[in-house]
Amino acid sequence: MYTFEKVDFEEVARASKGMHITSVELFDSKEYINEIGKYINSKGDHHFALLFGKYQALFGAPNHISKDNDYLYIYCLKATAKDGSFVYLCPYHGDRGAAVLMPSELNDVDTKPYYVALGVLAALLIKTQPLDYKWKFHTRWKSKKFMTYEVICGEAFVSSIYANKISEEEKKGYY
Q1: Minimum mean pLDDT range among 27-31, 108-112, 141-145, 168-172
Q2: Fewer Cβ atoms within 10 Å of its own Cβ: the N or the C terminal residue of the chain?
Q3: pTM
Q4: Is the predicted pLDDT of residue 69 greater than 90, yes or no?
Q5: For 13, which DSSP code?
Q6: How far is CA 59 from each of CA 105, 138, 142, rounded to the nearest angstrom?
Q7: CA 105, CA 102: separation in Å to the nearest integer?
């Protein structure tokens, strides 16, 4: 079992200095994250919206939040085991969806504790009621879209509109 706490970027940077970092998508087929992968990707953006609400309910505001879909948000988490050992996980939402940054298998580091901690976090996220919020952002793709994620009483609402269908005044709310 792990407990989780949000920590600052500097702590994670010091701990991971010189390491190869990899991005593990939440729909990766590794056994420890299959459960969350099935859950998150079953409804696309609606579940991504719920996931962000769940992270906010558990850990408060993210370490970083953006107005574009490159790194919409990122959390720096320290996962501590009962024996006092710990690992760092950095869940984020990038242009391909929800993922977690952690050391890659290229390092001389046992990555199993990271996957076990990720599995515990996944189980915690599944049980957590999302926080209500509204968040506007834009995509960086060639066909730019303006998106709104909103969660109200545990239900996600997602809307999008292409850039050429929205006035310049309305676009200001997304930057």
Answers
A1: 27-31
A2: N
A3: 0.82
A4: no
A5: H
A6: 27, 24, 33
A7: 10
DSSP state of 134: E
Listing DSSP states for 42-60 in one string gives TSTHHHHHHHHHHHHHHH-
State residue 140's pLDDT score.
67
Distance CA 73, CA 143 (A): 22
CA distances to 27, 41, 107 from 44, in Å: 11, 5, 32
**pLDDT one-digit tens code per residue, 125-155:** 889 999 999 988 877 666 678 888 899 999 9
What's the CA gap between 137 and 123, in Å, rounded?
A: 28
* Token duo for residue 47: 């579940």
Q: What is d(CA 104, CA 111) in angstroms, rounded to the nearest whole number? A: 7
Query: Which of 153, 148, 144 has the alpha carbon at shortest distance from 135?
Result: 148
Position 32 confidence tier, pLDDT thresholds 50, 70, 90:
very low
- Tell me how far CA of residue 66 lies from CA of 121, 140, 157, in angstroms: 23, 12, 19
The 10 Å CB-count burial string (b at 16+, else e) for 58-93 is bbeebbeeeeebebbbbbbbbbeeeeeebbbbbbbb
- ∠ CA 33-36-41, rounded to 5°: 120
